[in-house]
Batch of 4 targets.
Target 1
Amino acid sequence: MIVAKKVGLSYPDGTEALKTFDFHIEKGELVFITGPSGSGKTSLLKLILGMEFPTHGSFEVLGESIQSDNTEKIQMIRRSMGPVFQEFRLLEGRTVLENVMLGMRFLDLPLHTIKNYAIQSIERVGLGHKLKHTVDRLSWGECQRVSIARAVARKPVLIIADEPTGNLDKENAINILELLTSFTDTDTTVIITTHATHLIEDFHNGVFIKMNAGDMQIERRI
Ligand SMILES: Nc1ncnc2c1ncn2[C@@H]1O[C@H](COP(=O)(O)OP(=O)(O)OP(=O)(O)O)[C@@H](O)[C@H]1O
Ligand SMILES: [Mg+2]
């Protein structure tokens, strides 16, 4: 699913965000990326999403090489990914249902199927009672849930969430993590970053990637 061989990432200004690393992530794995601010978590996600390219080494996601000369194929595999961005990127003035359906507009499916998938995923995140509410009236945590519903509605094989628990108290943060991890199955890989290591203490199975100033320490717990 994801294979990195001697990969490193430096930004044009010379910042070495990711020092040379190797890893592989299999289909169906749950991956937590932890580490302090500036340690390279988002940079690693950007590589996986094909939003940055490695400065050296070979990086493959869903069988495609993440390189500047492969952008068409990268666009294709992006459709199999469900990103949950830190800043949500929801459309104001639109309802919960509209926001989720808009995230699916490029799918080659009949409108009623899109609508059914959207409603299913909104119910799954616990907002079935707010389908017709505009997102402007929702709390931060509810917006986070809409953003998750939008990411999962198109049934991606790779769900990627950057700091999904950002502004939440511990109880709600754990609820969000449990919701996200519940999407892991034999075909679906879930990757979550957080700087709050105490939040993931109760998760015992998965791949734990600890970042520290661009260095990576990887532990697989089964
Ligand atoms: N576009 C960029 N150009 C130059 N440097 C960058 C760029 N993006 C990130 N960096 C630097 O790369 C390093 C890693 O940043 P990154 O955003 O990956 O960290 P992070 O672990 O996600 O931090 P946070 O927990 O604050 O989100 C930092 O030193 C950051 O300043
Ligand atoms: Mg970050």
Target 2
Amino acid sequence: MTAGDVGIGIVGYGMMGKAHSFGYTVAPVMRPLRHRPHLRVISGRDREKVASAAAAYGIGTWLDDWRELVQRPDVDIVDICTPPGSHAEIAAAAAAAGKAVICEKPLAVSYLQAAAAVAAVEKAHVLNAVGFNYRRLPAVSLMKRMIDEGAVGEIRLLRATWLSDEFVDPAIPFDWRFDRSIGGTTIADLGSHVIDMTTWMAGPIAEVSGQSVTFVRERSGRKVTVDDASSALVRFDSGARGVFEMARTAVRRPCDFTLEVNGDRGTLVFEYARLNELRYGDGGDRSELYGMRRIRAEHPLHPYARDWWPIGQGVGYGSSFVNHLGDLLDRWPDKPWEPDFAQGAAVQAVCDAIERSAAERRWVEVAEVMDNRTPSPAASPPPTHKVGR
Ligand SMILES: NC(=O)c1ccc[n+]([C@@H]2O[C@H](COP(=O)([O-])OP(=O)(O)OC[C@H]3O[C@@H](n4cnc5c(N)ncnc54)[C@H](O)[C@@H]3O)[C@@H](O)[C@H]2O)c1
């Protein structure tokens, strides 16, 4: 049922270059696609490494310059898998060349940069999407569907954490992740997923109060310019309240993310370590059943389940890329993609607001970041006491 071929050019051969190559390769195996993706070309700065990645990922051509990649006539979609500080420039060049653009998260390292990327794709009228792949895990998708269907009632509270140990060891050498201008913050690296999923489920965030800390301030003799860990209190437009925590310094926590929603009628909990399941507490259950039931998000009635293995076999991280890229290809070439750059920029505004709040020790409205406003004096009373670092 393939209606046509789509040429893919991937910029960046690292972990995400591999994950996206996997997604394009496996999607047509698992589900009928209207358009078959062809991995035409991959680019990277290191010729030896990009050549060996191209061979491993089954991509016929490699280049050492992304500028050449975005101009190629056999590329319909430019898929950006490089560090965040490079996204906006590559996206703008790809859009100007008339290519659809898929960009890894976070969309940029600042709201201003993200807004420029949005302006570029809108001006060029090209399809655009941000790599918030975790939405497409079956259990996370089911959580969203259950919330929309009223399973928890009106959302009152949201709790989300993303904990990793990738920055624990002070001997880890300096790389792009420790440089604010190219890697962005931990708030954006881990928090952008949390912000995307919670706003997808509960609507926009109005204001935040954040705190940030950097425990290891120097690596390989260079100054670390990003936070190791941050957290935030959050108020949604709807009035719901949230608590977010993102840390790359949580010992023996590999990539543990959790989402919990408490409504006036029920509770839903997702834990990444058990990614095929949801826990659901239904306030309408008989009292003898007090507690939470464990839902296996693999039934053929559940999102994406029909595309995967028989019930009970489960899926993993890779399925989120297969589902994400498969959904985008299904909508090629004329149906809008989701989440798009505008949603990526809205997430970036929340990241910037948390960062600003932590730096200035006050609640920050997200609109203040989007309008590039400075706060009214009443909104930021001076601190009445001195606090350590
Ligand atoms: N969605 C997810 O699950 C997920 C997971 C990990 C990373 N990411 C995101 O994917 C992006 C890439 O991360 P990764 O883990 O693949 O990184 P990586 O370090 O494994 O690979 C980065 C790639 O970009 C290239 N590169 C490095 N510095 C560059 C620069 N200054 N300019 C241009 N290219 C440069 C490298 O040569 C390499 O090809 C980041 O935005 C990251 O936040 C997303």
Target 3
Amino acid sequence: MKILIIGNGGREHAIAEALLKNKKTECVYISTHNGGAKDRIINAELTNHNIETIDEFLAKTQIDLVVVGPEQFLSEGIIDHIQSKGIKAFGPHKAAARLESSKAFAKEFMEKYQIPTAGYFRYDNYDDALTGLPEFGYPVVIKADGLCGGKGVSICQNEKDAVRALTDIFHNRIFGNQGTEIVMEQFLSGFEASLLCFVSGNKIYPFDTAMDYKKIYDNDLGPNTGGVGCISPNPYWTVDLDQQSNQIIRQIEKGLAQEKLGFTGILFIGYLIENGKLYVLEFNTRFGDPETEVLLPRLKSDLLTNIMQAIDDKPVELDFAANVAMTTILVSQGYPGKYETGHEITGLDLVDPDILIYHNGTKQIIDSSSDQKTKIVTNGGRVLSVVAVKENLAAARQAVYNNIDKIHFDNMSYRTDIGKIIEIYKN
Ligand SMILES: Nc1ncnc2c1ncn2[C@@H]1O[C@H](COP(=O)(O)OP(=O)(O)O)[C@@H](O)[C@H]1O
Ligand SMILES: [Mg+2]
């Protein structure tokens, strides 16, 4: 079986490695370029990364299955398109992907099916939105409706911030058409947990839990990022939360069926826990990054089998090992702001054999100084996920940081407190 993965980050690298565990997998193509590609993981180098070049590649290479990473493609209906050509594709159709690509659609879905979420209003113009502000007090959360690459949400501490956010969205149109509407919602305070689930024929099969570290600096300081560390299972998850989550999952299943969404793929439930109660902050309709980098190494069932079960609307037989996985992501200094790329990465050959390295933002280039061999250089803000899977969190944490000491690139930076139990999360 030849598989194409759309996307090229750490998530896609982890998916590729997991798919290769099945003997039926002949090779896995990464749609653009991942510096970790070797042996049967092959870079397709689709430089014009769009439906036309993907179509051409599918025909030329005789791909049997397409797995889609990034949300943008799903929201544009890539699954509908590929399936219409008779090729198997894993992910939700355009209509179901709206659970991620429209925050207003997702909130209405939650409201209709009694899924606990922050109170909200939706607005499609500045004047009405302004009159809604006093309803919530501060902080208030303002979310552009569409996909904004993780930048569409503002947590406004006071009226001035809120007015600025509304002006930017409705008058300055900083998100273009993705911001023609907004969701304004109540601020919840607590800690977050991510739950990825397989969805097969509107039935939900959850993965084990994970906890993502979003802030760039230690002790959860500094700006938000795409995620700079992750652990699985989530150490703050309890039996009670699990019961609440199962109840929420039953409600989501009911909604998927009644709305005839025909959801097949991954549903990522973004939870927030306030005073012991679970709320759904948002849905994503795809694998999370960096959650995938810690979940797939713990998967005991076979990923390709699970994907085919979902595509065939069969029960998904997921199984997880009773161990702990942790990743710390090495980033380019300056990320999530400006950063340099092109720095050579060394020491990857020195890491322990049981450490997993997934490439988030790297590139293979010809090393002119050493006989046409290749070298790997940095090519993004998030560069490498260093993953350890051990019997407990302390051992995983120690293994990750011991091995990070062996890796080097100029301007390398990372959080030193991933996996350290922090009191502030407990409430
Ligand atoms: N109602 C809320 N209360 C508190 N924090 C929130 C709320 N909604 C979102 N956030 C914070 O903002 C982040 C981004 O919001 P989210 O809805 O996940 O959108 P996206 O991931 O598309 O940017 C969340 O992970 C959370 O930290
Ligand atoms: Mg989110």
Target 4
Amino acid sequence: MEIPEIETPRLRLRGWREGDVERMAAIYSDPEVVRYLRPLDLEGTRKQLLGFEYQWQERGFGLWAVEERTSGRLIGRIGLFHHADWTASQHDAEVGWTLARSSWGRGLGTEGGAAALRYGFETKRMQRIISIAHRENLASQRVMEKLGLHREGETSWRGIPVAWYVISGQDWSRRED
Ligand SMILES: CC(C)(COP(=O)(O)OP(=O)(O)OC[C@H]1O[C@@H](n2cnc3c(N)ncnc32)[C@H](O)[C@@H]1OP(=O)(O)O)[C@@H](O)C(=O)NCCC(=O)NCCS
């Protein structure tokens, strides 16, 4: 399938292009950005983007490349991912976000996250979307709260202490009322 393009007031969520690998690797080269993430070099970034593309083809959802509409510049990735190794609960997908540091603090993570949730619930008819963050990653947890996710608890995942949040399709539709 072709990855669907979604526009929000300030963002364009679009499919991945060849030239995006270098820009995403540059975003990941900032230690602040990867403070709570697995660091990726250029080759690791290339593999990750191929994995995103693969999941789009396999499941019809995934992570989008995120552009700021005014500049057309790639500023990160936002979207949905199913983790086969997440066993703490049933989930249709996890919603996640990573933006270049220069784009933080303007509500863009929340704006893009809302578009991803809308796609999951309204286009893909998902029932349960989770979000997982390092226990100390409070900015990401704040985005989850602003999007209406509820904290479920803490666990260890891939050897990391994480907090995880949930939103059901019912919560989402009530939120839209
Ligand atoms: C998480 C991330 C996408 C948030 O993007 P963003 O566009 O800055 O998010 P928003 O502006 O929509 O919201 C951030 C919220 O977190 C709050 N916040 C930021 N830093 C915080 C901190 N250290 N402690 C507590 N809250 C914090 C902000 O004040 C804001 O809340 P508010 O609107 O109530 O003031 C961005 O920080 C990022 O890319 N981080 C690095 C990658 C990452 O860790 N991704 C998540 C992996 S689980």
